[in-house]
Fold this sequence. Notes:
- The chain has a three-stranded antiparallel beta sheet with strand order 1-3-2.
- It has helices spanning 16-32, 34-40, 43-51, 56-59, 61-66, 73-80, 84-96, 121-140, 144-161, and strands at 71-72, 100-105, 108-116.
- The protein is mainly alpha-helical.
- Helix 6 packs across helix 7.
Amino acid sequence: MPHEHEAGKAPRTPTPEEVRVVGLVPLLEPYFRKGVVREQMPERLREAMESNGLTPRHGAVLPQLLAGPPLSVSELAGRLHISLSTASELVGALSRAGIVERNEDPANRRRTLVSLAAPYRPLLETFLARRLEPLLRALDGLSPADRSGFLAGLEAWAAEVQK
């Protein structure tokens, strides 16, 4: 792999296009600042997160549960590119906070499914609608092929930084 860094060797020099990408990353930083995220979060959700010591890593689980049916912990781990034990710890903390529920899978009693607790679903929907506005506007301007490339790039980057 041309982009893989080998121990003891100097890292490769990025191309001009890669330097442009790196230059854009700090421009996104204000979007992820704790204060900005905190002020967009509905009060009840914010209080639940803060009083239980939950972090952005815990918060990353929640959108996965909003879009579809309940998921197993292993499915969450795969979607988030994290280990099964990390996913289990995140779900456990969210469950103790009452934000998610764990229930037996009716089709397989040995499997546990995770879902959003009903009182938190509308709060998370409101929060995500606020948070997603800039991204959705940007995606609206992209062709389907560019959207796919954007998603593939973000997934690859997320997977690399979590190794």
